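LOG
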Amino acid sequence: MLAVIRLFLLAAFFLFSTLFGLVMCIVLPFNRDNVHRCARWFSSVSVILGVKLDFRRPENFNENEGYVYVANHQNNYDLFTITKAVPRNTVSVGKKSLKWIPFFGQLYWLSGNILIDRGNRSKAAGTIGKAAQRIKNEKISIWLFPEGTRSYGRGLLPFKTGAFHTAMQADADVVPICMCTTHDQIKLNRWNNGTVYIEMLAPIKLDESLSARENATRVHAIMQDKINQLDAKVESDNGRLARN
């Protein structure tokens, strides 16, 4: 019964938020803070899911700089969890087909996000170049999931290099955003689904003497280490609940 109620509330929220978001984006099309506003709305749904979001970021972090944010991508619940970490002045890069999802796709496009044609290498490279120019010229930040797909419990997958080519072309720092493993953590029929830990790491200056692939491998190792630490917190939480 709880799962049915939650699904109803999620559907109602999704419809309302996308319609309201479309109105906002028609009034303020492609505004640099539209993505941040929408992300905050969607992360508020964590309450409906019975999840507490614990998000931390470096002190005195300046979100008005142009960065390339890289985050781990796990499942469909990311829409309501890791969105808590989306800063102001940020747009994401998503596949071109998202544009055709009714309501959500139009909201995604009008919010100012960048659509990439992954099936066409030359067009994808051109999109990366345009994203790098926006970082340089507009001081806007770009959010990417460098795994390129959801991991669905398979751990942190190998990174594709697009995010790192973008950062190197823009001479921008990479900012990792790590979330604990959420695979099988959220059960719609369970009232309390615990705490999801999300942490933004300090900006990383890429090594120009290394290739994009080598830089991707280096950042992957840093993120894997942090995700392991966050997973250890979840295990500790579960142990305390079992003892109580």
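LOG (cont.) second protein
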Amino acid sequence: MNKPLADRIRPSSLDDVVGQRHLLSPGKALYNLIMSGDIPNLIFYGPSGVGKTTVASIIANATNRSLRRLNGTTASTQDIKDIVAELDTFTAPNGILLYLDEIQYFNKRQQQSLLEFIENGKITLIASTTENPYFYIYPAILSRSTVFEFKSVESDDIVPAVERGFRLLSQEHNISLDIENGVCEKLARGCGGDVRKALNSVENCFFATPASEGKKHITLETANELIQKSSVRYDRDGDEHYDIISAYQKSMRGSDPDAALHYLARLLEAGDLPSACRRLVVCACEDVGLAYPQIIPIVKSAVDIAMMVGLPEARIPLADAVILVATAPKSNSGEAAIDMALADVRSGNYGPVPRQLQNKHFDGDDAEVKGQFYVYPHDYDNHWTYQQYLPDKLKDKQYYTYGANKNEQAFKAYWDKIKIEEK
């Protein structure tokens, strides 16, 4: 009875697995592979609590290979050697199916030690990871494996698992349950797509509710109290972190204030105030930029206020600033211009600073034409006169193109008029 409810209720067939219909519906590739019994090396990629281990266990039970399990957080190279030593012995006559959980914690050498046996088919590897396998798994392992991505489970799919969990606890403890309307749905919604977390909440609700006259009355109030704040799926070092902050900035860039506020809320609920502030400032400069340049000090002030007051009050100035950025006119002309200039510099496409711009006041005897010849723009009408500023090699180069927004077009009209008059 010490095993967690999620382990006691773990499905034994694909039909009982909640979610992952994109992988496990009849006719889908992974479903067909499992049904065929001819299992290749597989890598399951996705967040925790979404069925990766469950599906691996179902596969293991359907094969005639000896099953061995390792966890990348605790396993050593010696553990791998012990498994290899079993090959071609009576304990593993048909080879070994190795389920390696959290493979991202295996270093390159540990992963390489499996390579020979994966290649000759004596070990069939099923590995799971919560991190992007293309970043964390040795390429030679990847090239010999098929990657399947598991996704967060929708709350509607989790409800049956929650109901099943309550039924099992009722049977195990021989006590009837009176579950208030909405409890199962609340637990399913509050787990962030993590079935294991939902079932942990089921256990918490069960044991936090005292029995009365041979019955337990599970209330919505109890469910609300016990749902963990960590229901928002977030890992500051993992893919979810980068996905959320990417969606946050892209929503502001795409002028969708509702989506931007949603992702801001997820960052704030996870306590990641620095990322929320940093991306907000970046977006103001990169995506609004010269279309509304006054926004940059406004956003900086909002961020300063947020960092000064901290959470939860920080949500207010940040929400104001996010809505302002999302609804402001957009221009990336500044970013595009500096990126073009950097490309020239990095490729060596530049030349000496023009003589009239150099910080020199003396010409050597070798100078054919003496004098700096700098022209001071403020001595001329409109504070401008023609002068070459780029190096000779790039004198006709244009990095900046005025954006089509009202602000930049006003600047363009101003300078077009002055420069035409000068000519």
